[in-house]
Design brief:
The structure is a single chain. The protein has 9 helices and 10 strands. The chain has 2 domains: about 170 residues; about 110 residues, Rieske [2Fe-2S] iron-sulphur domain (Rieske Iron-sulfur Protein), CATH 2.102.10. By secondary structure, it is of the alpha+beta class. About 40% of the residues are buried. About 45% of the residues lie in helices and about 15% in strands. Strand 9 and strand 10 form a beta hairpin. The protein has a 4-stranded antiparallel sheet with strand order 5-6-7-8, with no helix packed on it. It has a 3-stranded antiparallel sheet with strand order 1-10-9, with no helix packed on it. The chain has a 3-stranded antiparallel sheet with strand order 2-3-4, with no helix packed on it. Helix 5 packs antiparallel against helix 8.
């Protein structure tokens, strides 16, 4: 039973509409496109995947932002305690130092988003940038002995990064910019063997889309074997059946994530979660698949 008042429901609806609004601001595409291309062109090499969080198994940016947010929250509390001003100043400085790596990881992730999510991400980044500038002003004021001004600027910075954090959470969870898009595969994959067709129907080295029960899959004939993976990329649901096969890997056509055909592991991001692989067998020349470990 919903016990919330009509007024609180209206307030909640207005808040959700405000958080969704940036996805419709097409004017943000003008700065977003060249900025995303610039970030994509940076010679980051293997550090790009490290910043995406491929090594961690999920995006790195949300973990990194805990550091500046934690430092700044602690600084706010120490500002309220007598005799702890120097500690508060040190925490403001620590927050500024750790904000840089978090921002870099966030921008690298942002550059691989689709336009609606990029718009929300840009507003999120602008709010956080405003917060960083306010905290920079706060630290300068503290160093010059203007403690009252430093506290006020710190409070304004906390409000800015909090707003950015709320929008970032909306982007990650409501708009699903970071979750594993294939998490539901174990519930959709058939527990019993399902036929996909004759082995000879699948050209060697070419991805072919099929359906196994409720699950769309991509089949790649790899030598004497057929590899079968979930068809939608774990990053942003790109159609892997339209991708390319090279060196034992399948490349997503949307953002370039590469998955090893043998076990679905991520070879190159921005995807951080492996691509689910189905168990296969061949009976009388027909390829069959099922959920791994279902037998």
């Amino acid at each position: 039973m919903n016990t919330s008042s009509p007024q609180s429901r209206r307030w909640s609806l207005r808040l959700r509409r405000a958080l969704d609004a940036p996805t419709h601001w097409e004017f943000l595409d003008a700065p977003s496109r060249p900025l995303a291309k610039t970030i994509e062109s940076l010679p980051l090499g293997p550090y790009r995947d490290a910043l995406h969080g491929v090594w961690l198994g999920h995006p790195l940016h949300p973990a990194l932002v805990q550091l500046p947010m934690g430092f700044w929250t602690s600084a706010f509390l120490l500002d309220l305690a007598p005799g702890r001003q120097r500690s508060a100043d040190a925490l403001v400085a620590a927050g500024l130092l750790t904000a840089g790596p978090a921002a870099v990881a966030g921008w690298v992730d942002w550059s691989r988003l689709d336009p609606p999510r990029r718009r929300t991400g840009l507003v999120h980044a602008l709010a956080n940038t405003g917060g960083v500038l306010l905290y920079t002003g706060s630290l300068l004021a503290r160093c010059r002995g203007h403690r009252g001004r430093g506290r006020l600027l710190g409070l304004a910075g906390a409000a800015a990064v909090s707003a950015g954090g709320v929008l970032g959470g909306h982007l990650a969870y409501r708009q699903a910019a970071g979750p594993n898009r294939a998490a539901a595969v174990p519930r959709l994959a058939p527990p019993d063997w399902v036929e996909l067709g004759r082995v000879e129907d699948f050209p060697a080295g070419q991805p072919v889309r099929r359906r196994a029960g409720e699950l769309r899959v991509v089949v790649v004939r790899d030598g004497d074997r057929c590899r079968v993976l979930a068809e939608r990329c774990t990053h942003l649901s790109g159609p892997l059946s339209e991708g390319a096969v090279a060196d034992g890997c399948l490349r997503c056509p949307w953002h370039g994530s590469e998955f090893r055909l043998r076990d679905g592991q991520v070879v190159s991001g921005p995807a951080t979660a492996p691509q689910p692989v189905l168990e296969t067998r061949v009976l009388s020349g027909h390829l069959e698949v099922r959920l791994p470990g279902a037998g």
